Every structure is written in structure tokens, then in C-alpha cells.
Amino acid sequence: MTSRSDLRTAALLALALAGLAASAPHAPSAEAAGWTAPVQLVEGDDAALLGAAVKADGTLRTAIEDRPRGIALGLADASADGDAFAPPITALRAPASMGRTEIAADGSGVALQLRGEATPASVVAFDAAGVAQPAQSLPGASGSWTTVAVAASGAAVAAWVTKTPDGHFAVVAAFREAGAAAFGAPTRAGYTTDDDTLVRAGIGDAGEAVVSWQVNGFPSKVAAAVRLPRAAGFGRARFVTRDGTDAQLAVGPGGQAILTTTYGRRLRASIKAPGEPTMPAVREIDAAADGSTAAVAAGGDRRVALAWVARRKGERRARVRVYEGARRPRRVGTVGGSAGGEELEVAVDGSGATAVAWEEGLTATRGKRSSGSAAGVAFRPARGRFAPAVSRGPLSLSMSPKAVRLAPGGRAFVLYEAFESGDAGGNGYRRVMLTERRP
Amino acid sequence: MSARTIRGALALLVVLAAAPAHAAHAASWSAPRALDAPSERCRAEGLSSCVVEPAPRVAVTATGAAAAAWVDPRGRVRAAVATTPGQFGDPRTVAARGLRPSAAVAPDGTATVVWAGRGGVLRFARRPPRARAFAPARPLAPRGSRRGDDFPNAAGQPDGSTVVVYESGDAVRSVTISPTGAPAAPVTLGRGGFGRDSVRVAADGTLALCCLHPTVTDPNVPPDTAARVAVHRPAAGWTLLPLRALDEQDAVETVFATATDVALGTIRVSQGGDAGLLGVPGLARAGAGASLGAPLLAPVLSAGRGLAPDVALDGSGRSVLVFQEKSRPRAFSRSAPVYASVAPAGATSLPRRQRLTSTQAYEPAVRPLGPGAVAVWQAPRHRWGVAIERGGTFRPVGAPAGPGPSTLGEDFSYAYDLESAGPFAVLAWVARDGAIRVSELDARR
């Protein structure tokens, strides 16, 4: 027979255990708010995520580099239940060196091929089965900021800075229409004053594209040019701001586009509807006591979204503000309790469903040298509110979201990198992980 | 006459022959005034913590009138004026708070001090001739950028006006203060920023700065990316001189201009790092209406050890390049022997170099002085080194008396200041005790 004191002891023990569990809210748990336990994609300093996309069947395809396995470009598909990744398809073997890779809805895609350590010099297209085509060079590409984008339809754009024969620096782009095998001849978007120019590009399903650029020294003028569907080249470029920081650009399937340049306490964005021939000047979306990283996304025919790490006056910690809409996005939620880091990811679909991922700082616990961080993730259904955010581990020194993707039916994928230094004598690691939201 | 007598007479003749040359360098420094020495409490806490930004900056006219401005340990903008050569009056507080002041003196004796005030707004104060104090400070111009305006440099003009150039965000702007003290609207000269020796004022009020980049207004048009030297001459206003003849490896470190000519101090860069740019120093010059040619390269022993070029056009129109060359690699150090090369106008190469000091000197500077030039450098053990050029040859002269320079409060831009006009030069520095010291060189004798 259990005594009263035994019952009391058991109750106290249960309370203590509950308290301990509650004191570690960021510890990974098997299931929370519909997000799966993290699954490892790759591990090690010589492995990385190069790109990710949701295929037409709603499953996730990732592009990876995994040097220890001799993979310069591999395609790893998440299983339908999201519990594991299938063995990667090797599209290119080392010593090729690949960069940013963009994937279409059928699983095909385009990857930047690097010259030397970091200079993109050509593009490599691959089909859904992972069969790579011969590399197609990007004439005159010399800078480090060459970029590529692929729409779900397979339409693609590559953009880069090239030096003209008369010594000027031109921003040029080459297009590949959906279903075409190769990129066309480059066409000029505009001019810049320096080889060290950040170039960004995005393209819609019908080939409507935007290229933006700015000299890599902030604040700097941000220029943007639009290429309408089936047009031979770009319309007239314009400066959307004269004092932009690191601009972020997204072009949706319908050809809508959003470009943001945060400037200290102000979040500003330029938003273009489908078919508009230019990006308008930026306008203020929000203000805060202090702001830092921003991210943009576009989905469906007209939707755009922004996320911004900002701090309200009187608050010590920053949170993530999320905005969604068409021409005039409005704030739809604020998530996180201690957002930080330099990487932030957001996604939106045609219905307005939104997902966001950020680096969530953790409170230091006794005996730990550093407080570390976790990946904060949150999902908001169309026209709804954000569900409570969850944190995903493994707990690490720094946790960087790398990609957020939405799939039909309220599913979402978040890929993030967890890094822990081994300098302090512990077991250091670098891992790319996936967590999936299931409705 | 005995052989001994003949030898004695010859010796006397040698001495007499040498005397005029020596007399040419009988220039003398005024007794330095120690201004705003830090308090005992400040010294007890450590000078480096309370001497934050002394930034002594000076200006002088061809009649020897001079002004010095600095920030004292309490953060006040202070200034001292000399109406008689070398006779600096007591320092006055020009503003209760400010940073990076710059001084100018017009030929009529009007002293102007410009500084970065609160909220990124530049402010200025003037002291008319014969006045005992500076008039209350006024804003120079509305803030031109969200980041605020900063790093003003002022130049007194023959008509009593003052030209000010300053950084405004990523642009360089200019404001002219009229002889009556009214600032005109700001003018944007181009994109750019100031380094250690980006702005230089000549005795006639000519102001030169390097380098500016054109403002791009249309991304559809190929931009002109050539850097430019901006020169303001009293008679002609602002002109921009493109730098098209420089090699891609040439970096401009200093600039100087007169009413007709422009000179650049360059480095053909071999390496850059914590000790700044190292390579082959050079001098590029353009005469009236001409474009800048390729730099004349200094004779160095090792192409990777030259540094710190400074240039001047001396009072006889010669090109003067003062530079350093390390005798051996020394990481993180910009100390090295100092050399000079002096060439006539129109020279196609620099002649042999002259060694001004073999010690491990620091931050050499050169300015015109009378018919020649004066070079100053920081010698080891907190001493000054000074040499005066006449007829193309430098000869050492005495340094200001008392405590020499220190690196207290040195920021990325300057540790001391040297300006000249006619036969006068003014040197201001921070001594080891934290006091501002200022001394004026009079080369009339």
C-alpha cells in the first residue's frame, strides 16, 4: 500500500520532472506543433546544401555537395513521410566545384559551376534523373556574385557582371525558356561602376524576370531591370533606392517581384505586380527601434512576403516580424523571442500560407560555455494566425536557416545548418538538417 | 706668409663661403606653447583613456597669422589664434562638444573653425580680425545624409571667404562661407571619402582633394568610373581632373595643388596589410590645363618596401616627393628611414634620392616653405626631425624645443598637423603629457 508520504514524494518528483522538461523548451522533441523531428541531410565541413525545391508531387528535392562521398552535385530526395533522405543521385562528381543550384518542379535544375574556389563561370543543367548536360559558359563572368534562378516551370535566368571592351562594367543576363535545352545569348540589364557588384535574379513561370544589382559597399544604390515574358531583353533599368543595404529579391511564379533593402530602423520594399515593366522605388513598410536581417518571398500569382528581425523600443531582444499580401503586404505576425544571426528565410504560397525560419538565441545554462542557438520555425495558414513557434536542434553554437519551402496542403520544409565548434575540446560538427511540417 | 697662415686663411675662407648657405637655413621655431594639458586626475587614470581625439589641426597665412583647433579631454572644441607669427594666444572654447575640428585663416586674419557637431550636423565659428573671441557657433549646412556629415576641411580664401569640404554619406560636399560669415548652399562634388592626406590647402587658398568618383544617375548608361582630383582655386572655383594615366596598381595617397599645377603622391602597390600600402612611391603632376601623367617613380632599393609618399610643389615650382623605405621587413610597422627626391617642373623622371634620416622615423610630411619646402617627421624617442629644401637640396635644421610628438590620441587620420604659407609653417602635435603643443617656423631670416 502506498503511503501518503510516498504519494507526496511522487508528486514532488513529477513536478520536478515537469519543471525540468519545461526549463528546456528548445531541446529537440520528436513531435511539436506538427513539425517532425530533424533529419540529417549531410554532415561535415566538406558537405553543404546547394539548393532545394518542392517537386510537383509535393516531395522535397535537395541539391547537395558531399566531398567525402565524391559528390560535387548530388540530388537527395526526402522520403514521402519525411523521415529520411533517399541515397543521393550523383549528377557531377568531384573535382568539379558547384555553387548555387536551383531546381524546377519536375526535379530538373541548373547549377552554377565555379572556377577555382569561388568564381562562378558557367552553368550546368541537369534533368529530373540527375543527368547533367555539358557546362554552358557565361561569357565574361568574372565576379563572385554571378547568380542563377529557376522557376517551377523550368524557365531560368543567369545574371552576372562582365567588363565591356571599352572598360565599363555591364550587368548581363541569359535566359532559358521553359522546356528549352540551353540558355540564349546574354542581354544587358544595365551598368554598374565596379566589378564587385552584388547581382540577384528571379524568374516567373512564363519567363518574366527581374535582375537587381548594387555595388558591394553599403549603403549603395540598388538598380533593377525587368524582362517581360517572351521579350528579347530588359526594359529600362532604374534605381529603386540610393541607400540600400544588402538587397533581397524574390520573383513569384506569376512574375510578381519583391525587393527589400533594410536601412537600420526602417524596412523598405519595392513591389511589382505581374506584367509591370519596372520595379518601383522602395517605400517604407515598417519601422522599429532597431532592425537587421530581412528576407523576401513570392508565391502563386500575386503573393509576396517579407520577414524582418527587428526590436521594439524598450525591448532588449529582437523578434521576427512577418508581412504578407499582394501590392501592400501587412504584418501578419511576430514570432520568436530572441532572434539573431544573419540568415532568415521566409516562404509564401498562392493562398497566403507563410512559413518562416530564423536563428533563435538560447539562454545560457549552468556549465555551458556559450548559450548557443536553435532553429526557430513557425507556420501560418492562409488568412490565419501563426501557430506557436517551435525550436529545432541539435543545439549548437550557431544555427542558420538555409531554405524554407511550402508544399500544397499546409506542408512546409525547413532546412537549416547547425554548427558547433570543436575548438573547446568537445565534438564539433556541421550538419544540414530538415524538419517538416505536416498538417 | 707661412704655410700655417695660408692654411688658416683658407680655412676661414671655407667657413665664410659656407656661412651664406647656413644662413639660408637659419629658420627658427617659436617656443612651443603647451595648451590644455590633461588634469592630474586624467593622468592618474591613464592618458590614453582621456586623450580621446586631440586632432590638432592648424592653418597659417603668408603673413604668419595662424590658428590651431583641437578637441580637449573634456570633448570641447578648442582653438588658439596667433595674430603675430608664433605668438599663440590663450585657447578658447569654441564649442562645448564636437569632433574633428578644422581651422582656416583668411589673409585678413579672420579665423574659422569647422567641426562635426551633434546629430551629424557640421557647425562653424568665426573670429573676425581684431576680435578677442570666436562668435557663437552656427550650423554650416543641413545634414546631407542619414549617416550625418563629418570630416570637414576648411581653407581660407583671399577674399576673406572660407571653403569647406566634408563627407556627407558616400558623397563629398562643399560649402563656401562668405566674408560676412554666411554659408552658401552645399554643393555635391561627387562620391568619395577622406583618408589620411586626402585634402590639402595651399598658401593661396587652393584646396585639393582626392579622390572623387562621379555620381551615377542612370543605370542604363555606361558610367564614367575614372577617379578625379577636385581642386578649388580662388579664381576658378571647383574643377575635376580625371585620373586616367594611373596604373591599376597605383594608389593615390596624397594630393597637392597650386594656382596652376596639381601633384599626387602615389604608391605602386606591391602589398597591402596592417602596415598600410607598401610598394614604389611616385609623384604624378599636371600643369595648367594639362592632364595628369603617369607617376614618376621614386628610386627605391626594394619595390616592396616603399611607403608614405607626401608631395609638395615648392616655392620655386619644383616637384618634391618625400617618402619612406624600410631597410628590412617589419610587420605592423610604418617606421622607416625618410628620403626625398626633388625634380624640376617638366621632369620625366625623379633624380637620385636624398636621405633625410636613417633612423626609424614615422609619418613624414612635406610642405612648401618660401622658395623651397620643409619636411617634418617623427623621430625615435619622441623627437622631431626637420629639414628645409633650398635649390633642390634638403638640409637639416633644428626642431621645436621641448617635448616632441607622441602617438597619443592618434586615429586613422592624423597624429599631428603641418601647414605652411610663404615663409611660415605651423606644426601642432600632442606631446607625451597629453598637452597640445603648437610652434611656428619663421624662415624669413
How do you describe this structure in short?
The complex is a heterodimer of chains A (439) and B (445). Chain A is mainly beta and 439 residues long.
What would your notes on this structure say?
The complex is a heterodimer of chains A (439) and B (445). With 439 residues, chain A is mainly beta. Helices cover 5% and strands 52% of the residues of chain A. Chain A has one helix at 4-23; strands at 31-32, 35-36, 39-43, 47-54, 60-66, 71-77, 89-93, 98-103, 109-115, 119-126, 136-137, 147-150, 156-163, 169-176, 187-192, 197-203, 209-215, 220-227, 238-244, 248-251, 257-260, 266-272, 283-287, 290-299, 303-311, 319-325, 330-335, 339-348, 354-361, 373-380, 390-396, 398-407, 411-420, 429-437. In chain A, the strands form 9 sheets. In chain A, strands 3-34-33-32 form a 4-stranded antiparallel β-sheet, with no helix packed on it. A 4-stranded antiparallel β-sheet of chain A has the order 4-5-6-7, with no helix packed on it. In chain A, strands 8-9-10-11 form a 4-stranded antiparallel β-sheet, with no helix packed on it. Residues 12-24 of chain B have low confidence and may be disordered. In chain B, strands 12, 13, 14, 15, 16, 17, 18 and 19 form an 8-stranded antiparallel β-sheet that branches. Chain B has a 7-stranded antiparallel β-sheet with strand order 24-25-26-27-28-29-30, with no helix packed on it. Chain B is 7% helix and 48% strand. Chain B has helices at residues 3-24, 40-45, 47-50, and strands at residues 28-29, 33-35, 57-60, 66-71, 77-84, 87-88, 92-95, 99-105, 111-116, 122-127, 138-139, 149-156, 162-168, 171-177, 187-192, 199-201, 207-213, 228-233, 237-242, 250-257, 262-273, 276-286, 296-297, 306-313, 319-325, 336-343, 354-369, 372-379, 383-390, 393-397, 416-421, 424-430, 436-442. By secondary structure, chain B is mainly beta. The interface between A and B is medium-sized, with 24 and 12 residues.
